[in-house]
UniProtKB/TrEMBL annotation, chain A:
Full protein name: ABC-2 type transport system permease protein
One Pfam family here: ABC2_membrane_6
Record's keyword annotation contains Phosphoprotein: no
Alphabetic keyword roster: Membrane, Transmembrane, Transmembrane helix
Superkingdom field: Bacteria
Taxonomic source organism: Saccharothrix carnea
Classification lineage: Bacteria, Bacillati, Actinomycetota, Actinomycetes, Pseudonocardiales
Ranges annotated as spanning the membrane: 24-46, 53-74, 144-172, 203-221, 233-253
UniProtKB/TrEMBL annotation, chain B:
Transmembrane stretches, start-end: none
ABC transporter domain sequence ranges: 2-247
High-level lineage: Bacteria, Bacillati, Actinomycetota, Actinomycetes, Pseudonocardiales
The organism of origin for this protein: Saccharothrix carnea
Protein topology in the membrane: Peripheral membrane protein
UniProt keyword annotations, A-Z: Antibiotic resistance, ATP-binding, Nucleotide-binding, Transport
Name of this chain's protein: ABC-2 type transport system ATP-binding protein
GO cellular component, one term: plasma membrane
GO biological processes: response to antibiotic
């Protein structure tokens, strides 16, 4: 029953966006182009070098495709949290609190960024291509991983989004900081983490669990050991990391909303 | 229906002092507010800007948690059981919308039906009734963004009633509306209170709203309750004088009228404004006037409600 409410909210959002049909389609196309532009950067880079952090062009494209698809899904589901300061300032957030539903679910469902479908589709196309170009030992495990990796990645990115934006409940101008973490982690995860310095690597790999979006699952898909010496297991636990990240994000959001209702702004 | 005792709410305000230092200051937006509203009442909650009205409303509806004090709405602690309370009360904010901007009004209602899990039959009958009374029919299928403010406000009120709340809280419901829209909304709300017994609590700057809707009013300023009572009583208490306006057939001078404190003469002695206290009655003054001159027309003017409120503020 409760789920159907959220489905209806999503449906309403879709109909709302469709009332500006041309603009919506153009935005979808723009999103797809955006996604492919990031791919172009990688390809240009490989014109100059033959390997990046020890990985070939096909391997890097695989990482990029998993990360890009995951980010596209997360951006669709959680991207509107960037609007949180506006929600707070205009009192729209108070309206959410007046309804008998959770605030986070309401924000996600009723303001879904559907134009990001363009980004997701482009990501999936590249992903299919990358999977076919790499030498992958297909088995039940790797097939499951190929499907689960983008989904887990999406959950991880969404959790990052929720956590980073929850800062806005304390600091109304926290948006810039939140963006650094959300969009920054997207940029980070599209490349093998071996190209980064150790501190940045540790921060984005384990504090913000970005390395579990694309890097480790790609290693497992490719059957390659981690050049940094991490155990092979890391490549398979992204779904668990995703669940943990979601739990943390949920707790942070709850604390943040409690803070908002406690001190207001 | 509403029970509030010793309600307090503090905010921390940070202000810049010098280039880097910031000073934190605690401001009490609501300070020791207490009142009760019985089921079926219609109460006006008035006060100047920044008096603490909205903060109180936010605590009653569970948006904000009180710093201290006791609140029960429909027998429920709003801060702890926000979602449960949400099903039982309706809230209309004049300045923010709960409708879906890009969708027709009808779709917004349908969504709210799902959000509040209203049974289909109840929903259909409530909607039909509201649509008839507020005449929403002609624009039910228009996207909300294209509605006029008056139309949208009517939609907002209906949206807050679809789940059949026991209590309707309205924060500045008539703000920005033209006279006709205001009148129509007031009529509807008065009806709702009378016929369906829905309890009303409304904040407003438009004192005509109070005059038309609320037999009782709670006046607050700087976070505390200044006065609580029937409009008539408050009027008698703080504005004890009424004015008798008489038009005479021929210009005349009126002297020695009982209880008349001051008078003002217009139109070369034809019209007299006589201010008299509550110790005497209008009838006595009128007969005293009639004894001295021939009366063409007369009217007794009660003090304006904004006058009453202004005097309450001044009395502090």
């Amino acid at each position: 029953m409760a789920e159907s409410v959220y489905l209806k909210l999503v449906g309403a959002r879709l109909r709302g966006q469709m009332s500006y049909r041309t603009s919506f389609l153009l935005q979808c196309v723009a999103q797809a182009i955006n996604q492919l532009a990031e791919l172009a950067i990688i390809l240009v880079l490989f014109n100059r070098v033959s390997a990046l952090g020890g990985f070939s062009v096909a391997e890097v494209v695989l990482m990029y495709a998993i990360a890009g698809t995951a980010f596209g899904i997360a951006d669709m589901v959680a991207g509107q949290l960037d609007e949180l300061p506006t929600y707070i300032r205009t009192g729209t957030f108070d309206v959410l609190l007046l309804r008998p539903l959770g605030t986070l679910a309401q924000m996600m469902a009723s303001d879904l960024h559907l134009r990001k479908v363009g980004r997701i589709v482009a990501g999936l196309v590249v992903l299919a291509y990358a999977l076919s170009r790499n030498d992958i030992a297909w088995s039940a495990g790797t097939v499951a991983l190929a499907v689960l990796a983008p989904v887990s990645g999406a959950v991880i990115f969404s959790s990052i989004w929720v956590t980073a934006n929850a800062v806005c409940f304390w600091v109304v101008d926290g948006q810039e900081l939140a963006n650094t973490v959300t969009y920054g982690s997207n940029a980070f995860t599209s490349y093998p983490i071996t190209v980064y310095g150790p501190w940045l690597r540790r921060f984005f790999a384990f504090v913000v669990p970005g390395a579990f979006v694309a890097y480790y699952p790609s290693l497992a898909l490719l059957g390659r050991p981690d050049p940094l010496g991490g155990p092979a297991l890391l490549g398979w636990i992204s779904p668990l990391v995703a669940v943990a990240a979601a739990v943390v994000a949920g707790l942070v959001w709850r604390t943040a909303v409690r803070h908002y209702r406690g001190t207001g702004s | 229906m509403i029970e509030v005792r010793e309600l307090r709410r503090e905010f921390t305000v940070t202000t810049k002092v010098g280039r880097f230092r910031r000073e934190r200051r605690v401001v009490r937006a609501v300070d020791d507010v207490g009142f009760e509203v019985a089921a079926g009442e219609a109460v006006g909650y008035v006060g100047p800007n920044g008096a603490g009205k909205s903060t109180t409303i936010k605590m009653l509806t569970g948006i904000l948690v009180p710093t201290s004090g006791f609140v029960r709405v429909c027998g429920v602690d709003p801060a702890r059981r926000r979602r449960e309370l949400a099903r039982r009360i309706g809230v209309v904010f004049g300045q923010r919308s709960q409708l879906w901007w890009d969708l027709p009004l009808r779709d917004s209602f349908e969504l709210l039906r799902a959000v509040y899990r209203v049974p289909k039959a109840d929903y259909a009958s409530r909607l039909r009734e509201c649509v008839d009374l507020l005449d929403l029919g002609p624009f039910l299928d228009t996207p909300v963004r294209q509605l006029s403010l008056g139309q949208r406000m009517r939609g907002e009120v209906v949206a807050s009633l679809l789940h059949g709340p026991e209590l309707l809280v309205l924060d500045e419901p008539t703000i920005g509306l033209d006279l006709e829209s205001k009148e129509r909304l007031r009529e509807f709300l008065a009806d709702l209170n009378r016929e369906r017994g829905t309890t009303l609590l409304l904040t407003t700057h438009d004192l005509d709203d109070i005059e038309r809707l609320c037999p009782r009013l709670v006046v607050i300023d700087r976070g505390t309750v200044l006065a609580d009572g029937a409009l008539d009583e408050l009027r008698a208490e703080v504005a004890p004088e009424r004015v008798l306006v008489v038009d005479l057939e021929k210009p005349a001078e009126l002297v020695g009228l009982p209880g008349v404190r001051s008078s003002r003469v217009e139109s070369n002695g034809l019209r007299h404004h006589l201010t008299f206290s509550r110790d005497t009655t209008a009838a006595k003054v009128i007969s005293a006037v009639a004894a001295q001159a021939e009366v063409h027309d007369l009217a007794v003017v009660e003090p304006e409600i904004d006058d009453v409120v202004r005097r309450l503020y001044a009395r502090r």
